[in-house]
Amino acid sequence: VQLQASGGGLVQPGGSLRLSCEASGFTPDYYAIGWFRQAPGKQREGVACIRASDDSVYYADSVKGRFTISRDKARNMVYLQIDSLTFEDTAVYYCARDRKSGERVRTVVTVGICQFGHWGQGTQVTVSS
Buried-most residue among 10, 13, 25, 108 (CB within 10 A)? Predict the structure, then answer.
């Protein structure tokens, strides 16, 4: 499982970013995929997930209305559009994949019904004036 996140950067409050994730090593039709973030000194927070079966989406309450997740199955890409950025959005953002049913993993990060058990290197998002 490989998940390569990109698109982070330094942005002013109120600005926007679009994060991208290139997924490989698994069949995207079978797994939910999404994003979580981790700010310095804080726990991981699942922020968005999109299901493979019906493209249902789930968001953390803290990002609803500002974050939009989408995917391009043909290209094995997942995107996170982040609008109206605030200082509290500063974090490393990770692209993550659902774990298999019954699969044991070291750590699980949840958002909605998604249970992320696999992720790659993150991309830094810094909101600063």
Answer: 108
Per-position DSSP letters for 48-76, written without gaps between them: EEE-TTT--EEE-TTTTTTEEEEEEGGGT
Q: How many angstroms separate the CA atoms of 66 and 124, rounded? A: 18
Q: Given a cut of 90, is residue 43 above it in pLDDT?
A: yes
The answer to whether residues 37 and 19 touch, using CB atoms and an 8 Å cutoff, is no
Sign of the Cα pseudo-torsion (19, 25, 26, 27, in order) = positive
pLDDT tens, position by position, 13-37: 999 999 999 999 988 788 999 999 9
Q: What is the DSSP letter of 32?
A: -
Sign of CA dihedral 37, 79, 49, 106: negative
